[in-house]
Amino acid sequence: MSSKVFTYDTTLRDGEQCEGVSLSLQDKLLIVQKLDEFGIDRIEGGFPASNPKDIAFFRAVASMPLAHAQIAAFGNTCKKGVPAEEDAGLRDLVNSQAPIATIVGKTWDEQVTRALQTTLDENLRMISESVAFLKAAGLTVIFDAEHFFDGYKANADYALACIEAAHDAGADSIDLCETNGGALPFEVARICEEVVAAFPDQAFGIHCHNDSGCAVANALAAVRAGITQVQGTINGIGERVGNTDLLTVIADLELKMGFETVGPDKLKGLTNVSHFVAQATDTVVPAHHPYSGTSAFAHKGGLHASAIARFPQAYEHTDPACVGNSARMVVSELAGKASLFQKASSLGINLDVEGVDIQGILDDIKSREARGYTYELADGSLALLIMRHLGTYNPAFSLESFRVIVDDREDTGALAKDATSEATIKIHVGDERFVATGEGTGPVAALDNALRMAITESFPEVADLELVDYKVRLPDESEGTNALTRVVITTADSLGTFGTVGLSENVIEASWNALVESIEYGLIRLGRAYV
What we know:
38% of the residues lie in helices and 20% in strands. The protein is an alpha/beta fold. The protein has an eight-stranded parallel barrel with strand order 1-2-3-4-5-6-7-8, surrounded by ten helices. Strand 15 and strand 16 form a beta hairpin. The mean pLDDT is 89.
């Protein structure tokens, strides 16, 4: 068995079928460049004649100087009753200039008779002639055997006859598609073993969907059974609940199973690729996503953090650096001293000095979290809290007062959409007093604008801080409108992102507290010395 497993990415076609995802031409080209740098072997670009964007994509990608990846154009077998050489779709594949043509064909007898509404023999003819035509045109041909596992379970003889038709016509790889995502690993393993044994000289691939939560497991089971190519999408995006997460499979194959995909050096770029494609597709990498999530190697429990310091393998299944991620200590009411020491160190704060009341800091954190604060997503607020205990916190400014007005001039009641907010802030920076008024679509935006206007003269670096996310939650919803409100703000700067938290019975005051800490900590991160 070869140790090489080929990687086939279909983010640009199957991934774009994910609800809410729409890629521009530039998005698609940037993703191609990123995947090529990462070491993906084959990148499926879409249908070469389905729409103007895909036509433009194949024209543009043909001139890209790719270092490793090959582009695949996707299409169907020839239509029923149409010779392959006369089929417009097959001609479009040839004319796309892509070196690989991937065509999908039916292998489930009921799909042939009910969906295609043709005969089983005609479907075999469509498969055979289409593969042969594309091979004669000099292309590498991949045959996607659609609904193969359902077809095999329903009528194994016919499903294998479809494979034989593609094999005899010269398909370079026949990729077995688990199209509806319902098969389980033991089924996939058994069927793949039987198919590989029946065609020992044929290369096979696997294409899975995640409807039963088994796409990655099914792909790994297929590789163990002799499959040599895995199709998937970055972060598993795709129609319904998604496709095989190709990055997770790559990491599992490289780190757990001893197979070669992109190689250990390029594997270190996995987390970067994951987040890059998420941004390009306007999706998010879930915090708990395997390997690339921000919580993939996060440690919260005090006992875990203590053990991690002595024996990382106890709670980290692999070295996070292998996939370009890093371990992270999460400080909360569950934290112990080891957690606090490591977290403070990651924030650039040394607690290992004489006279520091570590237990006092922990007690303060636990007391605050019991009231409704949270520091798991608020590194900035945590750093300022520790600095207050150490006596090293020197505020950049102090508040005299602020006032927020929400004004809706249109009498449309609950349907009003043109409300605006105005905030007036009076603050002191050193001995100077500043008054500023800012406007925004909401009170937080107005406060943010007013605060920046007030301190920009003293701290021009504030222009480098951008509020990128704002979350509101009631820690105790049973209190209704009288409940404490928790606000978490995420701020971006040139170094990355960080969070701050505010808590109050008044949502505006909670927002102000989180906003002030975002500015205070942001200035510290940017190395600004307070006046």
